[in-house]
Write a structure and sequence with these properties.
The complex is a heterodimer of chains A (799) and B (311). Chain A has 799 residues and is α/β, with parallel strands linked by helices. In chain A, 51% of the residues lie in helices and 9% in strands. In chain A, β7 and β8 form a beta hairpin. Chain A is globular and about 85 Å long. Chain B folds into two domains: 242 residues, Alpha-Beta Barrel (TIM Barrel), CATH 3.20.20.70; 55 residues, Alpha-Beta Plaits (2-Layer Sandwich), CATH 3.30.70.20. Chain B is built from eleven helices and eleven strands. A nine-stranded mixed β-sheet of chain B has the order 5-1-2-6-7-8-9-10-11. The chains are: A alpha/beta (799), B alpha/beta (311). At the A-B interface, α28, α31 and α32 of A face β1 and α4 of B.
Chain lengths: 799, 311
């Protein structure tokens, strides 16, 4: 059996052009490293006495301008789009004032670790170690609470993260910047607007300071572009190759113009946004700064250039390839602890194509097709390519998508416009703004340029709530109660009693989470305002308010419900075994769970109770219950400090694996420390009836409850999707699923043998792509446990 | 076959033995399909890929590689039919296929093959995927074994499915009561009809029955219905010789058919023989190479028949 994945690897010749091939090779061959520049320059700035008393927003703008002004810059051979995220060809920065301090605890482990090793030299390590004392009591997590016991509790809590992990402690990001206006009017345009608005407010008021910060950083980013112009001019002076010399002159010309001014051509537009993309990643969390609907806002430039005869389709394709590869030059620097939750070297920079425009008309254009070609051709870790689909999507567009997917590519992930737009409407978006959505991060829908939704604010361990509900508020095997006090299992007479206990535990811990999260929200607002981000989100300039303080037009926070399928299956198993069949009493069942289901017969019995994902109404309604309960509890707990709702997300990245590891046994037959199902996918290996059954189960859920998006990862063995029948069948599955209310889907065509080879011999398949929870990553970037899970799952699907 | 006296539709309590239901089948007719495998077959083809379909009654199977030798099955068996053999677990001389061992087995190493399905239950099971059938132009495929071993059941089922707007197709070996032809033509949308060998004597050697009735039924059905697609397993050394291919082409031409679907032999059925009670030895046949398949295709082409090769 010839594997599609294998074909994909051999497909290097699908790459158009030597330039693109060389650029890709250079990036893929570069060992990811840690760049110290951001951390060191930032520290130098804040160590200066005079800077410590400045208003936070001005401090941030000056510090970032200093980083942009002093960081090393480079233009690599063959590049048409320039700009470097870090001092390494592929590298990541450390943000000591955010999650950087906990990250630096791992300083001496980065290069040696098995999962996602990062290169760093001894002198770099020592220099970083040198800034630890300065930030020890100044980083965001420690500033969240004033009281010392609370500080200590929060830090320890988050180091173990049993109930929840607050990602927002590492900064917010997660937005789709207003690149449309950036490209059109440049940094100067924003500075002028800020200047005009500043004239109308009182000097040194909060608004005044905010506008001042915007003006400072607008200048900082403009100068950053001009540094590349100078470098390109210098390089062109000594360049012997005449063609490259001309290219360098063009680069110099473009960077002389953008991002300070508006772009005059397609290449300037792409150059402008990419330089700002770098700056945004250096301002706050380097995660999920998302260009979003590039096919839409770049199209006018493409069209104009075509009309002027200064671009061809091939040239646009090449420029976008160059851009796409550049987006892969950044990696997140996570501690091993954080890698458990966010595996796979994932920066979540989303590019979304297709869908409807603000008037509801289909918006697919030639650039959408070029992007489809590029994602198939390059198959790299970043950006995350997503495609929007609606009832009126053109056949040609769908055909192209499904032929790419059925041939084994894992991009694009697919989004259903009808369901997402309706969900956003229900959460308060205007129809036009909802239509203008893009995903950010993994799967979270936001309005391009208008939302500041901390979509990955926190991830929550839902199955643990059921564990505590069955044990009077204690985790199994713990001496002290950490949850709400609820009825003992022997007292529970019906499923209603079990539900009541579960709901009480859930509410109790969600309230804990909210307390901590809001402290972090306030810390972000007070200590880490983001003037550059705010400049690029509509609403902030008008209100004179930073995005961290609620300046954006739309504000949300996303809380992820992890393990919904396992929790629902577990409740179904309780219902069947205790209250229908009377096989055990609830007390007996709870005792068995505490002892990790010692008898294999009990386990087999529990595992055989039909689970979510098998088109079984009795099981599916429990998963529906779990997600609806979670969503309604959340919505009763808002608003956040930015005035927005808390909304539920059904995705888990790799948190389902981590939470699975720390949770006790569950009534669905899952033993202690086994992984949960990812996102909203059926729990592991439990979908036995094939894809149509899984989709029937999925369509029993109401995704309108998931304002923060869902990740539904569907796996296929390549053999069953072979040939044109396979492509048509895949299209039919997705169409039917979307038509019946499905929100999102990612397909994962796997060949188990390839994965085993890749696991034992990472060098053999260094670039193997897989999909895990809403993002594309290379197989080799996953932890061994995740590799095993993928291998096991793909075998099950081939049985 | 006195069942023909029965009047359609069948009572709801009517049952048939089914050993597998595969949803999301893509290679048994157009679109996304649910394939129902009926248990029981009049033929005994040497190359059979579903030997567990031969007998009508339920039977036990042992999947050796899944067994963890916990012997939870031993006390569960009321007939004392569990053996501690390396490769086997069931003494078929004692086994009455009650299924108790399978219920006790924690690794699905012991399984019951085949269970009786009520007409209505099977209908409901199939209808679950109606949305996918309608979107993809798919439907249900009745396979086996031989679906027309249960003529009243299958024809009633097809009538119900047709009423629900679901496309129906049967894969048949062709060995059924000729009086059924008219009913089949009237209640099914399409038929895949196997022509395994053109020669009566060779057919008898290879499958246990001669092909007289089969060819007769094929001709009759071709008269009666349009959507009938001849198919042929390509089994090296058994039916892939030039003479047989040309003779098969002659039959097709007589029936007014211009194409044939060729299904290359594969050895996936061999493992199954080890798991069930069977006196048949695994066939020592190698799957045809692409070159061999192309040769078959070329000969058919010379005969004016378009051969579609399955993968």
């Amino acid at each position: 059996m010839q594997s599609c994945t294998h074909e994909a690897l051999q497909k290097n010749d699908g790459i158009t052009g030597e330039r693109v091939r060389l650029l890709k090779k250079a990036v893929m061959d570069a060992a990811p490293g840690i760049c110290t520049e951001r951390a060191l320059i930032w520290t130098e700035y804040f160590k200066r006495k005079e800077n410590r008393s400045k208003p936070a927003v001005i401090g941030m703008a000056e510090a970032l301008s200093e980083v942009l002004g002093r960081k090393g810059i480079a233009i690599h051979p063959g590049e048409l789009i320039v700009g470097n995220f870090s001092s390494k060809r592929v590298g990541g920065s450390i943000y000591p004032e955010l999650h950087g301090l906990p990250v630096m605890l791992d300083l001496f482990k980065f290069s040696g670790r098995e999962t996602n090793p990062l290169r760093i030299s001894l002198s770099e390590k020592l220099r970083l170690a040198g800034i630890v004392p300065f930030w020890m009591f100044r980083f965001l997590g420690i500033r969240a609470y004033r009281s010392i016991p609370k500080k200590v509790r929060l830090l320890f809590d988050q180091l173990i993260a049993r109930y929840y992990l607050i990602n927002e402690a590492g900064g917010i990001s997660h937005f789709a910047p207003d690149y449309e206006r950036l490209i059109a009017m440049g940094m100067d345009g924003f500075a002028q607007e800020a200047d005009r608005l500043q004239a109308g407010v009182q000097k040194h008021s909060e608004e005044w300071n905010f506008y001042e910060g915007v003006k400072i950083i607008a200048e900082g980013v403009s100068c950053f572009g001009e540094r590349y112009a100078e470098l390109a001019e210098r390089m062109s002076g000594t360049e012997p190759d005449t063609q490259r010399k001309a290219e360098l002159q063009q680069i110099a010309q473009a960077c002389r113009r953008v991002p300070r001014h508006g772009a005059r051509s397609f290449v300037e537009a792409v150059q402008s946004l990419f330089l700002v993309q770098i700056a945004l990643n250096l301002e706050s969390l380097d995660n999920s700064v998302c260009p979003g609907r590039m096919d839409q806002y770049l199209y006018p430039y493409y069209e104009a250039d075509l009309a002027k005869g200064i671009i061809t389709r091939e040239k646009a394709h090449e420029i976008l390839c160059c851009f796409s590869i550049k987006m892969c030059e950044i990696v997140p620097v996570f501690s091993r602890h954080l890698t458990n939750f966010h595996g796979g070297m994932f920066n979540g920079q989303v590019v979304t194509i297709g869908g409807v425009d603000r008037d509801g008309k289909d918006a697919v254009n030639e650039l959408s097709y070029i992007f489809l070609e590029i994602m198939d051709e390059l198959r790299m870790r970043q950006p995350n390519y997503h495609a929007r689909v609606h009832a009126g999507s053109p056949e040609e567009y769908l055909d192209k998508i499904f032929s790419i997917l059925s041939a084994g590519s894992n991009s694009p992930a697919l989004y259903c416009d009808e369901v997402i737009i309706e969900t956003m409407r229900r959460n308060g978006y205007s129809l036009e703004d909802a239509r203008d959505y893009t995903a950010v991060g993994c799967v979270e829908p936001v309005s391009q340029a208008r939302s500041f939704s901390s979509t990955d604010a926190a991830i929550f361990n839902v199955p643990l709530m059921l564990e505590m509900a069955l044990n009077k508020g204690l985790r199994f095997g713990r001496p002290f109660r950490s949850g709400a006090k609820t009825t003992a299992p022997e007292e529970m007479k019906t499923m209603e009693d079990v539900k009541a206990a579960f709901e009480k535990q859930l509410r109790y811990k969600l309230i804990d989470l909210m307390d901590d999260l809001q402290a972090i929200e306030r810390a972000n607002r007070d200590y880490h305002p983001t003037p550059l981000t705010s400049m690029l989100i509509r609403g902030c300039l008008d209100k004179g308010t930073c995005s961290t303080a609620g300046g954006a037009q739309y504000n949300f926070s996303g809380i992820q419900c992890v393990g919904p399928a396992d929790t629902g299956d577990a409740m179904r198993a309780i219902e069947q075994s205790v209250f229908i069949e009377g096989k055990f009493s609830l007390r007996e069942l709870a005792e068995k769970l505490k002892r990790n289901i010692p008898d294999d017969k009990d386990r087999t019995y529990l595992k055989r109770i039909k689970k979510f994902g098998n088109d079984c109404e009795e099981a599916d309604r429990w998963v529906r219950y779990v997600i609806e309960t979670f969503a309604s509890t959340l919505s009763s707990l808002g608003p956040n400090t930015r005035g927005g709702k808390y909304v539920m997300g059904l995705y888990s990245v790799t948190a389902h694996e981590y939470f699975g590891r720390i949770n006790g046994a569950l009534p669905n037959g899952r033993r202690r420390s086994e992984s949960f199902g990812s996102g909203i996918s059926p729990s592991n290996g439990m979908d036995k009836e094939g894809p149509t059954a899984v989709l029937n189960s999925m369509n029993r859920l109401d995704f309108h409850a998931a304002g923060n998006g869902i990740n539904f990862n569907m796996k296929f063995d390549p053999h069953s999707l072979r040939g044109p029948e396979g492509r048509k069948a895949l299209a039919s599955l997705v169409r039917t699923y979307f038509h019946r209310g499905g929100m999102q889907i990612q397909t994962n065509v796997l060949d188990p043998s390839i994965l085993i080879e890749a696991k034992d011999n990472p060098k053999l398949y260094p670039h193997l792509l897989v999909r895990v929870s809403g993002y594309s990553a290379y197989f080799n970037d996953l932890t061994p446990a995740m590799k095993n899970e993928l291998i096991r799952r793909s075998y099950l699907s081939c049985l | 076959m006195n069942t023909l006296k029965g009047t359609l539709p069948q009572e709801e309590t009517s049952t048939a033995m089914v050993f597998d239901i595969q949803r999301f089948s893509l290679h048994d007719g157009p679109g996304v399909r649910t394939t129902v495998f009926f248990k029981g077959c009049p033929l005994r083809c040497l190359w059979c890929q579903n030997p567990e379909s031969w007998k009508r009654p339920a039977e036990m199977a042992f999947y050796e590689q899944r067994c963890e030798r916990c012997f939870a099955c031993e006390p569960a068996c009321p007939k004392d039919a569990i053996v501690r053999d390396a490769k086997h677990r069931i003494d078929f001389s004692r086994c009455d296929a009650c299924g108790d061992c399978a219920a006790a087995c924690m690794n699905e190493a012991l399984r019951t093959i085949g269970k009786p399905w009520l007409l209505t239950t099977l209908f409901e099971e199939i209808v679950r995927d109606k949305d996918f059938f309608l979107d993809s132009g798919g439907g249900v495929t009745l396979s086996g074994g031989e679906p027309f071993l249960y003529p009243d059941f299958t024809l009633s089922l097809c009538a119900m499915l047709r009423q629900a707007g679901i496309h129906t197709l049967a894969e048949t070996c062709g060995w059924f009561d000729s009086r059924l032809c008219e009913l089949i033509a009237g209640s099914l949308d399409a038929v895949f009809f196997d022509i395994k060998h053109a020669s009566a004597s060779a057919h008898k050697t290879l499958t246990g029955k001669d092909n007289g009735l089969i060819i007769k039924n094929f001709m009759a059905l071709c008269e009666l219905m349009k959507d009938i697609q001849p198919r042929m397993p390509i089994v090296p050394g058994c039916n892939d010789d030039e003479e047989n291919i040309r003779a098969t082409a002659t039959i097709l031409r007589k029936a007014g058919k211009q194409s044939i679907h060729c299904l290359p032999y594969h050895s996936l059925g061999n493992d199954k023989l080890m798991r069930i009670q069977s006196s048949q030895a695994p066939a020592a046949i190698q799957p045809p190479t692409p070159t061999e398949l192309e040769r078959v295709k070329t000969i058919f082409k010379e005969e004016g028949i378009h051969a579609v090769l399955y993968s």
